[in-house]
Write a structure and sequence with these properties.
Elements: H1 2-13, H2 15-22, H3 26-35, H4 40-51, H5 56-71, H6 80-94, H7 97-108, H8 115-132
Helix pairs in contact: 1-8, 3-6, 4-6, 4-7, 5-6, 5-7, 7-8
Length: about 130
Amino acid sequence: MLINFADKVVVGLAAKPIMEELNLTHEQFGFLGSSFFFLFAVAGVAGGFLANRVQTRHLLFAMAIAWSLVQFPMLATVTFETLVICRVLLGAGEGPAGPIALHALYKWFPDSLPCVPTAIVSPGSALGVTVAV
């Protein structure tokens, strides 16, 4: 969850250099910043359904591969369009992380301790933002 939340804020932290290098308007940068969330929620719901049908380790492995592959185009010369496409795909790849992580943890703990898995996963969001800043 740490990396997931760090990825969400990193573009905002690099706003000035990105806008200057790519000559982006504020509207374009707003579109870029929000593009991460275009498929994030849809993928989160889909990941929740998949978590009941596919082993969690396979889903997490596929998500890690997707996160990695989506970053490769950024090694080359980056355009606004490339950034938007990569951010949309990254959001789709990271959307299921929360539901899948909780699904996996709920399997490890007895039903008498329903709050423990959430208490384990939740700090990752705060730590991710803190590390990114």
